[in-house]
């Protein structure tokens, strides 16, 4: 990841969403992007994105965060279901040839399975009550040893419950699915009641 005076930036064509430019680099605003908030708050997590990585991004929306991720990695498969943000996402893909926009329901990975390959990072930002089960359903695309970053929107799961309780329950479900939950990182003050669950998929199963 690239930092200039403590500010996260990415190297790529600017003007995607009116972002600031510093010394020729695009400022990756933590208030606009949960990934940037995670990286800014927890630099010790070693969240580096590299040029050989393949990413499956669920809940791509308008492509704000997608555009920054694409500045760093080899390819981003960006899944979005809503028609209006999909239009913006397509425009992002026209300017970044390593962004593959896919209009599909992230809860039905069989819809886009023929378009994908194994990925190094599964990143999910989907505001659905079933967001944990959506992540689990998409683990089929994550290579052994790959990482899941689930941006858990606790209020979307259950607005009446303590967010920490919701996060603990999500972590238990992901562990039961075979993942190692490395950390639960809260994104306040940038995104209150949001937690990033960073998980690692196990290597090949033992005999």
From TrEMBL:
Enzyme class: transferase
GO molecular function terms listed in the Swiss-Prot or TrEMBL record: histone H2AQ104 methyltransferase activity; RNA binding; rRNA methyltransferase activity
InterPro entries, A to Z: Fibrillarin, SAM-dependent_MTases_sf
EC numbers: 2.1.1.-
UniProt key word Coiled coil: no
Keyword Metal-binding: no
An annotated GO BP: tRNA processing
Domain of life where this protein originates: Archaea
SUPFAM superfamilies hit by this protein: S-adenosyl-L-methionine-dependent methyltransferases
Keywords: Methyltransferase, RNA-binding, rRNA processing, Transferase, tRNA processing
Annotated S-adenosyl-L-methionine binding sites: 64-65, 80-81, 105-106, 125-128
Matching Pfam families: Fibrillarin (PF01269)
Family: Belongs to the methyltransferase superfamily. Fibrillarin family.
Stated role: Involved in pre-rRNA and tRNA processing. Utilizes the methyl donor S-adenosyl-L-methionine to catalyze the site-specific 2'-hydroxyl methylation of ribose moieties in rRNA and tRNA. Site specificity is provided by a guide RNA that base pairs with the substrate. Methylation occurs at a characteristic distance from the sequence involved in base pairing with the guide RNA.
Subunit structure: Interacts with nop5. Component of box C/D small ribonucleoprotein (sRNP) particles that contain rpl7ae, FlpA and nop5, plus a guide RNA.
Protein name: Fibrillarin-like rRNA/tRNA 2'-O-methyltransferase
Organism of provenance: Methanosphaerula palustris (strain ATCC BAA-1556 / DSM 19958 / E1-9c)
